[in-house]
Structures are given as structure tokens and as C-alpha cells.
């Protein structure tokens, strides 16, 4: 059975303030792949995720999603297919339940049934339902991370872009998060993490090291 190509980075390069971050980056991600980007801080791992989402533009090369070039004309359609959980977990202020409900009143998500699954996910990720009635800004870093992960799952997508989503969790919870995401064989995962817990069978590691191909 032929692999179904979802994402392709072709000779991608990015510079900041005249300094090359990386260049000639190439990667193909097929449906169902679990790709883990590793490397030292500041080597551009999160930048690679943001390029796919159209948040950062390349200085050279191209990125494709389902054979469509990622650009201003396509990026909004591409984002509809991807669940993105950022390092920045401050998604708003107010009661957690209201923040979640607001997301499911957006036009693209309207009508989705999520309450029952929301409660089961709260239980799985060891969050008491009383947390729904707390203010999001008052939660701990680990609680915010788990709420953001739950929201991403409830969106019902099968392509996840995850940026340091277990950094604030204790070892047991890190394992539970990784277990949940890796057990879904049909999900495509594109992950940045310094946590070794993601280094498991079925996950392909790609090392990113800035400067390797810069300044040629």
C-alpha cells in the first residue's frame, strides 16, 4: 500500500535579522506518521511548525500540504484540517467552561457534540470537573496544557501539531498524554518536545541543528 503524503518541506530555509537559522531542510510526512523534532533550543524546531501553519514565512524553499503550497491563499483552509497546540497555553481569560464553549460556537465547529467526550477526557487526564468553573488564568501550567490538549482532541481532527505540550506535566501525566496520542494509529503527529517520553517505538525522530547548512 502506497504511503499517503500529507506534508512536504522542500529545501526550506529561514533567516532572522540577517542570520541564517537553517537552510535546505527537507521532510516528507505521510498520513499516520508520528514525527518528533529534536535538537537544542533555538535551532528552529518551533519555527518549522509555524511555517506549516502560515505563521512564519520561509526565506527559501516551499512547504506543501496535500500538494498545495502553503501561502496566503491556502493557509486558512489548511489550518481547518490541523489541531495546533502551542507552547503558549494562554488561550484567553475567563471561566474554563465558557472558553471551551466559545470555541465550539465558531462557524467551523458549530454543531459538534463534545460534552460527553469532554468529561471523559477530563477524567483520563486527571482533571476534576470542578476545574471547568475556575478561571483559566488561575490554572497551573500543567492544567492549562491539559485543557489545551483536550480542546485539540475535541475538535475531531486527525492531524496534530504539538509544540512542547508535556513540558509542565509530572512523569505520570507525560506518559498518559503520550499514550493517548500514540495509540491512535490513524492520527498524524508533528511534535516538538524536549521530553524523552515521546521517544518510543512508532515515533520517527528528526534532529534539527541550526547552522549545519547555512553560509555555504
Walk me through what this model shows.
This protein has 216 residues and is α/β, with parallel strands linked by helices. The chain is 26% helix and 25% strand. The protein contains six helices and nine strands, in the order E-E-E-H-E-E-H-E-H-H-H-E-H-E-E. It has a five-stranded parallel sheet with strand order 6-7-8-3-9, with helices on both faces. A four-stranded antiparallel sheet has the order 2-1-4-5, with no helix packed on it. A hairpin with a 2-residue loop joins strand 1 and strand 2. The longest helix has 14 residues. The chain starts with a strand and ends in a 9-residue tail after the last strand.
Please, what is the average pLDDT?
91
Category by helix and strand content? alpha/beta
Intertermini distance: 39 Å
Helicity level: 25-40%
Q: Runs with pLDDT <50, length 5+?
A: none
- Percentage of residues in strands: 25-35%
User: What quaternary form is this?
Assistant: single chain
Count the helices. How many?
A: 6
N-to-C SSE series? EEEHEEHEHHHEHEE
- Approximate shape: globular
Spatial strand order of the main sheet: 6-7-8-3-9
Radius of gyration: 18 Å
* Total DSSP E strands: 9
**Biggest sheet features:** 5 strands, parallel
Keywords summarizing the entry:
alpha/beta; 216 residues
Write the layout of secondary structure elements.
Blueprint: E1 5-16, E2 19-30, E3 34-38, H1 45-52, E4 60-65, E5 68-69, H2 75-79, E6 83-85, H3 96-103, H4 115-124, H5 141-154, E7 159-163, H6 171-182, E8 188-192, E9 204-207
Parallel strand pairs: 3-8, 3-9, 6-7, 7-8
Antiparallel strand pairs: 1-2, 1-4, 4-5
